[in-house]
Each structure stands twice: as structure tokens, then as C-alpha cells.
Design a protein that fits this description.
Shape: globular
Strand content: 35-45%
Distance between the termini: 82 Å
Helix content: under 10%
Radius of gyration: 40 Å
Strand order of the largest sheet: 58-59-60-61-62-63
Structural class: mainly beta
Largest sheet: 6 strands, antiparallel
Number of helices: 9
Amino acid sequence: MADRSAPSCHLRLEWVYGYRGHQCRNNLYYTAAKEIVYFVAGVGVVYSPREHRQKFYLGHQDDIISLALHPERVLVATGQVGKEPYICVWDSYTVQTVSVLKDVHTHGIACLAFDLDGQRLVSVGLDSKNTVCVWDWRKGKLLSMAPGHTDRIFDISWDLYQPNKLVSCGVKHIKFWSLCGNSLTPKRGVFGKTGDLQTILCLACARDEVTYSGALNGDIYVWKGINLVRTIQGAHAAGIFSMNACEEGFATGGRDGCVRLWDLNFKPITVIDLRETDQGYKGLSVRSVCWRGDHILVGTQDSEIFEIVVHERNKPFLIMQGHCEGELWALAVHPTKPLAMTGSDDRSVRIWSLIDHALIARCNMEEPIRCAAVSTDGIHLALGMKDGSFTVLRVRDMTEVVHIKDRKEAIHELKYSPDGNFLAVGSNDSSVDIYGVVQRYKKVGECIGSLSFITHMDWSSDSKYLQTNDGNGKRLFYRMPSGKEVTSKEELKGVQWASWTCVSGLEVNGIWPKYSDINDINSVDANFIGQVMVTADDYGIVKLFRYPCLRKGAKFKKYLGHSAHVTNVRWSHDHQWVVSIGGADHSVFQWKFVPDRKLKDSLHIAPQESLVDSNSDDSDSDQSDVPELDSEIEQETQITYRRQVYKEDLPQLKEQCKEKRKSAASKRRERAPGNSIRLHFVHGYRGYDCRSNLFYTQTGEIVYHVAAVGVVYNRQQNTQRFYLGHDDDILCLAIHPLKDYVATGQVGRDSSIHIWDTETIKPLSVLKGYHQYGVCAVDFSADGKRLASVGIDDNHTIVLWDWKKGEKLSAVRGSKDKIFVVKINPYMPDKLTTVGIKHMKFWRRAGGGLIGRKGCIGTLGRTDTMMCAVYGWTEEMAFSGTSTGDVCIWRDVFLIKTVKAHDGPVFSMHALEKGFVTGGKDGVVALWDDTFERCLKTYAIKRAALAPGSKGLLLEDNPSIRAISLGHGHILVGTKNGEILEVDKSGPITLLVQGHMEGEVWGLATHPHLPICATVSDDKTLRIWDLSPSHCMLAVRKLKKGGRCCCFSPDGKALAVGLNDGSFLIVNADTLEDLVSFQHRKDVISEIRFSPGAGKYLAVASCDNFVDIYNVMSSKRVGICKGASSYITHMDWDIRGKLLQVNTGAKEQLFFEAPRGKKQTIPSLEVEKIGWASWTSVLGSCCEGIWPIIGEVTDVTASCLTSDSKVLATGDDFGFVKLFRYPAKGKFGKFKRYVAHSTHVTNVRWTYDDSLLVTVGGADTSLMLWTYEIEGHRDSRQCDSEESDLDSEEDGGYDSDVTRENEINYTIKALSTNIRPMFGIKPHLQQKEPTLDERPPVSRALPQPEKLQTNNVGKKKRPIEDLILELVFGYRGKDCRNNVHYLNDGADVIYHTASIGILYNVATGSQSFYQEHNDDILCLTVNQHPKFTNIVATGQETQQICQLQLLLFMCGMQ
């Protein structure tokens, strides 16, 4: 089998040629270390001119387009483009990420700026609203956001002399922003008559509210406040792209190629015209300037960076060059020297020295260049052009040898033969022409086998054959120089190829992902000596594979940096370097090749951190060379926690059923029952898909979870207390370091994490809004202030919370595969680790993001699936348990060694003060010393070791261990089978709690005269439970098949069990031994019932739509009930044992006579008169009211009537247990509702004396006992239930005023079209004052009487200056309350009307106004705290209905 692993050598980025000047501005600065920071493609570059050295920041995964420098000039912020773009703040010394800001912008981040003290960062997005955001960048927290402008914003800056003020400018606007609280409010700059309204490209703020801005026409506009006060005309001859403020003054750069320096009052100091200097050229355009002391940096549109020393301003120094705008496709390397040649659509060909990292020659051609090749002797350079011609130059002096045009379409590939005699030229005309080099490039042959454009070519070592690839992915061979196609495989058998740059062929099969377009790999180059090859693709990735690479989906190492497609890649002549070129980013990257042997020396160097793993071993393969997953883990990864309908959807579903509700509300409905139930005990523990979810609390109680319940179990008293705040399956649990608080995470559409107190059982904090579908892992930090959580969305998002504030600190996509555990480093709360399927990652917090590094395995093996992790005794030691039974020991991110700990997966680990304890699938608990050198003791979980005080029976020896915890001298163990055991250090084991194992539980029966019940489940067990205070499992029997129903005989001695294969058993109720068994059906037995009295008959219902009736004494089938059109769901006998009531899946209610099974039709009035021995039916007029409004979505699965026939308990698919008054006639009866089960409740039964209600959950596998509390007898404790979910309005009980106010809809006004028709031109756009009779009638008042109008005729019209609000009549009382207050010891009254806050002075009768709102104010309150006198908050209605703007205002001041 071919080696499909990734190569062990790697590439390191050494140099990037280029600078992004196009479509960007202000992106070039000096750092504090006098280095130069800029960006190109997706790389941030820090260049040291003194050492001629570059450092790279590789945290982005797409084009960087904006950059800002922190005022201390060490930190840099960069923003990228992309669907979910983010901002990275990074250190220019270490090039490591400090903070990541994400999840707000879309499309891209156009501009960035730090404020004066560097605490806040402002960013502008490229979305349609050009959103402006202000960040606390260290915390990664969004402080404020607002829509920026309808058109592009080009620059934004903080006013460095006024706190909380910003200025932004762009297409035909400039805006002055103020940040107040968390609200950003803009005021548009007024151009007035001082200057033309035009596009503003850049700006700088100065003292005294003065702002200077550069305009598109080359003028500088000077603003005072928001008004344009003067213009400096002709500052530049064309648009001013960049303006930079420093201590000495301002520097501006423009499209005219000039840099101008100005003093602090914007008086000109000097002008430097770069076009006139030695390095200048026509059309040079300046995009970025930075002035520091006597040095000026200039970045140009054409990717050059100049450094100018002020006193030698006519000799600018060129420190960086790159290709200009236009695609870059042509790349060739010199056969004997460290030189690379590139040619681009900018029509230039350039030669770069790979040793000096510099451009050494440049020549401009007539046409765009698409490919290049150097002759074998290094004398000629051939260039293929876009117009179908090719040119040959002498490398020495770049003079032309020949120029030949034989084709009309672009030349995409050309290559010299190894013997130097021929040049093959492949064009988009689908043909290859062969030219003789010695005959002055005379055409000597032609290859015409292809049907598509030629993409790649290679010569054989003896120059006799040529292989080509074309756009169809076809690989063809030709004999040289004639060009005749070779079709016989024999002839090609021994051919050695001189180079390998083709993308199709057996040797490169493995470079293709499984499902990919044949054109998305643009270039390949093989290094035969090193047996590696490098590829370039459309996703901006350079990959390193082994060569040859025969099998599809081989592993590789990948390198990011190029942002868009990488068009070409080549090894240097001595294989020291790889050169890659980017199409759209037109940059040239030079990578150093680090072979295997060097790697070993460099292991102690940590890998470059990046948000995307550059050293990735991922591949798109099916990973067939990976060991099989353990069966248990396999099962667990396949569980889906998605629901069709979540509990969060209930309100919406009810809304949709509005009509039904209205009709129901009009009818008088039965009240909810007075009696209630209270959760008393739960049998079960969730072990089959959870881990490390079992702990001792401070007081020695045990906390764990099952279904939707957090359980605190007291083992001395055998009692439980419950946290019932969740409404769906809890999947994880973590305990606070002080052992008093617990965090639990649940399933849900927008799933929540609850932190609650184990003593009071009260929630302390609920965290929502970031995890979809569910939360599968949580962990507290050692100081208890932070919480980490992992979601079960497709990306397994990891979130770090400040849980007390309910604030998300950071988030990141964790992994595509399942993550099992998250652990926060106990010594450094900013670091955490996650483990999962082929996943071990170490994260550190960086602002709003987390930066991950994969665990480095080195030569110690491959990344296994990790099941658990703990931190050790120092901050860099970590330990993880694998799916193969090893414990991995990590220092920092490096794997030091592995220790074999268990047979099969290590599911749980716990760190002690001196040592560790581990538990595995092998059912063994092992104690280890603190270095995992020695195993000190092992405990096997066996039935024989079970102590007498156990509350049940072990189902099997060595059950898989899923959770381990220590405390109080014991080891607490949770198993996959749903058992909780306490292991004494000396050996005996006590079983404390148990429930069913994985699989749905449906069968439930209560004993006719004892407090016991039986359950049967898909886990293939039949169990008998004691319902008295000892709460334990009395007996268990394994069955050959799972079962769905069971029933005790009337005397309680026999127990009938229906199985899933269509058979049923009758067993002895005490010993569970078989008495008799039958099989007449193929499908699941869904319900089974003994007839009342002597129990003479047994009715057995199946999913085959039949009910069989057996005579118990003679063990014969005596009748068959036919006529149901669907499977049977419920069955009840009448008291006489003569009539059988049946419900079916088609919601039919049928009646059959026993024992023959004849179908009967009984009118519903008669049904009520019949005495039924039991009522578990869900259909019929007596229980019409139990079906919810959303009955289509959810089914009522079970019901059971108390023996006094007063209360009907039901269970439904939503996990609700409900109590109704019986009979529940009329639709949508009222009820009491209880949540504890997570998904469907499959069965409910009252005990023989109605003292307990027993319920079983389907998928949550739990058995719950509820005590029945008769009205008047129960304690005055708060009721666990939400009383009925029918809303209060349906009960009437509202006063008419309240009803009216309740129905006011504040959204209509905002969303409807304007109240009055508006026409005409806005006043500021009007040319002249319209005359009276032209004015549109907008007044709602009556027209003025004639007489008054005549008086105005003679008066001269004064132009209206301004209106000032003097008096407001009115107060909003109709739908508001508590909105009048005294202020200043009763001297003033504050209230509101319309959109105005009014301060009324009682003594003078005068009013003053707060007018910042722009819509009706609906509420008002006054701050009572003595520190904040006269602070008022008002909230308004607004067009974005969701956003209540709270404006705080100081009374009396405004």
C-alpha cells in the first residue's frame, strides 16, 4: 500500500515580495522598534530595514485590507475580507495574536483606528450599511455599533483631543460621531457654500474641534465642529488618498504622485514629487504616507514602498517592490542560480534574487505575460503572452532575441527540452508548437491531440517525449520533435521525466481531494531528490505531499498566506526554496524547505500559532488507514440531539393555532384539578453518552443528572432534591471548585447553561444565545469566575464565559468532529484544552477569540481519539486518555510519552493532590502516582464486591466506567449502564442509584396491592422496583429481545411481558422465571392486559393491528380482535372482563367483546356509563380535553386515571406530565403541567393506592416517582408546576382599560407607510421659496378664515430663521404609568409627552425640554441613588422595534 501519510519535512515562509497598494490606504507605519509594518495578501509583514529581515503574522485566512497601529506603536490591528471576517490585534515583536474580534461584521473590514489611550478600537464593515463598531479590544467585547452610511466609508479616526468623539468620511459625506453609553450618534458635516459636496478620502483630527480632510479633487477641507470653514485649494493635483498626523504636523499623499508636508496649522512646509525622482515614473500614485521624525514612508498604487529622508528628499530609497494590479501567472526558476523570474498582466517581467531577497532586473513588455521558461543553459528567457505570441529575451541584459506569433489565443505554458534544442509552446488553441532553438526558433513540429486548452507540460529526460495536460484533465503523450501522438502504453513504460509539473497522472493521484473539480489545482512541482512535491490551488493554499503520491486523498501539510488562488509554484534549482505566486494578490512568496533531519533539531521551537493550523495533517481522505473507533464511541458519535420540535418552539406553534384558541376561549372550560404532584425520586443516571458528570458536593451529597433533572442525592437518607430549571436533556455537568455550585448544559434550539446552588437548588445564572442544538461539555476555572462550554453544533463552538455577569468573553469554532471534554487550565484561566474525535487542542484566549494549537505528536504516533483530559501539577503539564486505552502525557503542546492504562477507551480521569485516578471501558478503576509511572491500586467493579447496603443489583461485571470523582474517603463511579457506585478505598462497593441503560423505556406496570412496579425497556431488561422509601431495584432479568409493555396479574403473582419480536412471556412476579411464552405475531407487542377479577383472559395487542385474547388457564388463544386500521396503542378492560376498549395509531377508539373478539359499536354516551377496570385510553369524549392546541405536532402518549376517577394524569411527546380533572370534556382542558422528563413521556401509572404517580421517559431512560398531594393537605411550599399553559386572557379577569392597553400595537405606526402623504422637495433641496398658493397643504388644522389672510398681504416676508420649542401642552397618560416624578425636592416636575421629556418648574411655570428622542417616549424613571441626582432614563418606541434606546439625561442642564 502506498504511503498516504503527510511528509515529515516542512516549509517555512522566508520572504514575501510585494505590498498591497491597490484599493487600500493608510496601511504602512513605523513601529516603536523602527521596523515597518504593512500587509500583502493574507499576511501581516514586519520588515526591519536595518537587518533586511521580515517577520510574518499568519492569523488571517483571507485578504487583509485594513491596518491600524496602536498609539504605543507595538500592537497592530488588521482586518480581512470574507463571509465572516474578523479583526486580529497582534504584537509586532513576537507576531503572536493578542486578541481576535469577530461575529459582528460581514463582507470585510474596511477601516480601523485605535483611540488615544489605545483601549478602544473602531472598525467599519463592508456590509450594505457600512456598520461602525467600537470594541474593547482586549476583552474582545463589542461596546457599540451603528449603521455607518449608505455608501462606502473610506477613513475613520478618533478625535484625539476630545474623548468619545469620532469622525468618518467617504463617498460624498463626512460624519461626526459621539459615543454616549453604548450608543453611537452621527451628525453629518455641513458643506454649506464653502466647498462642493464631494467624496472625502482621508482625514486627521486636530485641536479645538478642527478636522482636516482630503477630498477627491485634491483640495483639503478644514472643519470646525460639523461645519466646513475653509478649503485649501489645489493642495494636490488629484485625489488625496492618505493623511498622516504626527508631532511635527501632517503629511498628505495623492494620486498626483506628490507627498506634501504641512505644519500643525496646515501651512505648507515642503512638497516631494516622486514622479520627478530617479525611481519615479509617469502615473505613480501615492496610497499611504507615514511621517516620523526625518523619515517618510510612502506606499504606492503599484506595490512599491519608498523611504524618504527629509533632507535628501530627491533621493527616495526603494525598499520594497512587487507586481502591480493584474493577475500574476508566469513563474520560472533559473536552472543554475538562485533566481526566480515572474511575469504578470501588468506587462512587466521581473527577476528576483532568492539570496538577497531583492528585485534585480525588470523589463516592460508590450503584452500581458502568462507563462515563462528559462533555457537549460540559463541564457534565454521565453515569455508566453496573452495575445498568442511569445518572446525570447537574453537573461543577461533583457534584450529581445525573437518575437513570434503563430497563435491567436493566450500561451499558457512553455518549456525548454532538457538538451536545450527545443522549446514547446502550449496555447489555449489546444495545440503545442515545437520550435528549434538553434534554428533561431523555427517551428519544427506541432502536437494536436488535445480538445481543450493546454495547462501543463513536461519533457522526458532524453528529450524524446512530451506529456501534456489540458483543461479537460486529459493526459496525452507525444513523440518529439515531430509531435506525433503516442498511444501505446508499452512505448512509455521506461520513460523518465525530467520534471513533473503535471496535475494529472498516476504519480499525482493523491493530490486530488475526493470530490473536486479537475481545475482547482493550478500547479504542481515535484522534488525527485527529496521525494516531496508542492501544489498550488484555488483556495490560497500551498500544500506539501510525498512524491510519488498514488492514492486519492493523501495527507499533506498546508500553508496559508496567499489569499486568493495560488497560480504557480516551483522549487528553486537546488531545492532549498519553494517559490509560489498569487493570482489576484500578485505577490511572490519564498518558502524555505526544512527537510526531516533539520526538523528533529527544531522540535523545541513551538509551531507558529495561527487561527488556522498551517501544519495540518488533515486531508479529505476517508482515513481508511485509521484504527476502527471503539464500538461505544462509535455509537455515541452517532447519537443526534436534534429535535423536530424544541420546547422553545411552543409559543410560536401556539400562535399558529390562534383560531383554535379563540374558539376554545369562548367556551367555558373545566378548571385544572386542585390536587397536584411533586417529584419525589428518580431512578436513573445518564452515563451512556456523557462523562465526568458525577461529583460530591461540599456537604457530602452527590450531584448528577438524568433526563432534564439535576439531582442532589443524600446517601445517608436515600433522598433526592431536584433542580428543575432545564426543559430538555441535560448533557453535561461541572462542579465549582468550592463544590457548592454546579453548571449544567442542555439540549435546545438555543440551548442554555444553568449555574445553580446545590444547597438552595436556586439558579444563580443562565447563559444563552451562543450554542445551537445543545451543550456537551462545561468546566469551571480554578478561581470559579469563568466557565468554558462546548456546543454540539456542526463546528462544536467553544465559548468562554464570565458566568456571574452572563457575559461571553471569547468564542471559537472548535472542530468539525465531536468534542467530548473541555478543561480550563487551573493555573492560567486564559488557557484551556479540548479533546475529542482525533482532536487534542490547546487554546489560549485572545480578546473575543481563542487561538488553538494542535497537540504535537512528533514521532510518538498519530492523533488518537481522546476521551478525557486533566491538567497536572504545573501549568504546562496535561494528561489525556485515548480511545485505545493509553494515557498521553503532554508538556505545553508536545506529547512526551504514553502509558498503557486500560483495555479499551479511558473514559474518565480525575486529578488528586498526589496522583490520578482513571476509569475505562474495561470496568476497572486505577489509582496512579503523580507521574503515571506506577499504578498503585486497581478496583474491578464486580457483583461479588457489592456491599450489603446496596440499593440494587449490578447488571454485569466490569461495566464501562464513564465518570469518576473522589471525596469523603470514597471513589464515586458512574457507569454506562446508568449505575452510580461508591467504592470504598478498602474494596467494598456500594450501589447507590441505578436506572435503565441506553434504549427507550416504554413498558410500565404497577403492582395491584404492593408499592412496587415493573419496567421493561429496549435495553433488553425487565426490572422490578421498590417504590417504598428504600427506593431500590429488587430484581432484574435479561431478555432475548427488548420489550415495550408489561402487566401484573390481578393477584400480583404473575407478570406478562410483551417483546419487540412479536412474542410475549408470563413470568413469576417474584423470581422472574418463565411460566409460559407464546409467539403468534411478527411485529412489536405494544400493550398487554390481564382481565380484571380472576385474571382469566390476557389481551395482547400488537403493531400488526390485531389484539389476541388468550385463556390464561388453558394457555390457548381463544379470540382475535380485527378491524383496526393501524397499530394498537392502548387497551382497557371493563369491570366485568367482557368488553375491551382499544386505541389505535390512527386515533380510532374501538370496542371488542371478549373472549371471541367481535367488534362492537357503542355510542359515546354509553361509553361513559360503562364501568372500566382501568382507564389508560387517550381517546373518547371523556378525555377530549387532554389533547393540546398543537395536537398535530405532539401526541399524548399515555394516560392513567386515579382509582377515585377524579384526576387523569397524561404524558406527551414534549416531556410534559400533566394532570387534568376527569372527565376532561370539551377541547383544550386546563391542567397542571410538570417538566422533568426531557423528551417523550412514554407511560404513566398510579400506584394501587394513588399515593404515587410513576412515569417513564422514552429516550431519557429514567423512571420517576411523583407524590400525589391532595388539595388542602399539601405544605405551602411553592408548586413545581407551571399551572396550565392557557394564557390568562382566556379566563377574562381583565379590566376594560387594561384590555385596551394590552392590545395597543406600537409596531404599526413605525412599519406602515407615512401617515400623511408627503410630496414636494425637501426644504434644503428647494431652489426658491414657493409662493403661498403652491404650498402643499400639510396642516391638519382648518384653513384660516379669509379675513386673517388678507392682513398678511402687505407685510414683507422675513425668511424663517429657526424655531425654538417654548411650551408643550399634554401629558401621556393613556397607556403609560409611573411617569411623573418630583425632582430637586419638589421644585420641579418631570414627565413626558410625544417624543419630548419635560421639566416643569412649579414656581415659575416654565418648561425646559429634552429633545434627543425621535419617536414617542413610552416610559420614564428617575435614578434614586444619592450619587446620581437628577439622572433620568427614558425609553422610546422606534422603527427597529427591538432596540429600545435608553437615553440618560441630566435634568436642568438640558
